[in-house]
Amino acid sequence: MDRVSELGEFLKAKRAAVSPQEVGLPAVGNPRRVRGLRREEVALLASVSVDHYTRLEQGRVATASENLLAGIAGALRLSREEHEYLRMLAQARPQRAGTVAPEIGGALRDLLGALQTPAIVLGPRTDILAWNAGAVALFMDFAEIPPAQRALVRLVFLEPRVRGLFVNWEQVAAEAVDRLRMAAARTPGDSRLTQLVGELSVHDADFRRWWAGHGVRSMAGGRKHLRHPVVGELELDWQVLQVLTAKDQTLVTYTAPEGSPSHEALRILGSWNAESRARRPGSIDADH
């Protein structure tokens, strides 16, 4: 993703989504030739010259002040995450992602193995770098997927065993696309991420539509509703923990409130998975 062109497309998409009436401006022109706000209207609301805003949208401004970006964020009614995304595109110099998957530290592997709840470690492109037995029981054995294809967002769209788990798949998938766009802003020029976006765009019309919407979202946690083939309905809370010793890695856990039907279902699922693995000839520990 080219940072300069993405900045322009993002600003155009966001001003198209805001009507003059929403921000207290008269709807001059009937019909209006542009959807949403005009550039001069954004400039007025942001207290900046039309020329300066136009140059920013066209990628002709090398850097932008915090005050300028705050004014634009207010004019376009951006969310906190959208404001941060705008800042990354227009002001910050994000680091480029490496081409080699980062190593998982021994202590983190020990933690994964000790957790009784499903957990995975993600890299900067939603690469699944490591997982525990609980994650295998809940989702699938990720070792069956070639490492180059082991991105969580890819599995949500293209792996039927993962895609079919989510009761509200459209919401889960759309939010995954928004998180991928945020990741792309942090790692400009990442060829592997570009290939991932290209593959998903070719194979899934929903991905193309959501990617074109320029939505952004951070990895913050939430609740997922799943329908598992072994234990049925599950409502799980997922949390994201930053690995401080490896800035490009996050630990994601899936839990259910103590005493809830989903908590009991997770316990049953863990027992079922342990028995299933024990029955397999030559079975080895599946944690990675």
UniProtKB/TrEMBL annotation:
HTH cro/C1-type domain residues are: 10-83
User: Which branch of life, at top level?
Assistant: Bacteria
Name recorded for this polypeptide: Helix-turn-helix domain-containing protein
UniProt organism field: Nocardia tengchongensis
